[in-house]
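ok so I'm stuck.
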Amino acid sequence: MPEPSTEARARLETLYGGSLPPALGALTEEQHARLADAVDAARARQKQALREATDSGLDFVPKLLRGPVRKVLFG
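replied:
not stuck anymore, here's the structure
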């Protein structure tokens, strides 16, 4: 029998990219919400770290070329 869908669970499934593993189905609504918040925060930190690493890597490129190089690398 499928678990009832809740807002927090649906948000977590969206972040996960599909149905949650059975072990996560046993969590409460509050736990789903906290886990979704934690995943969101982790992804934001990861995105920021990647941005900083990219900018740091471009420090080796002459300033005049950074814009075109960034455009070639990232579209």
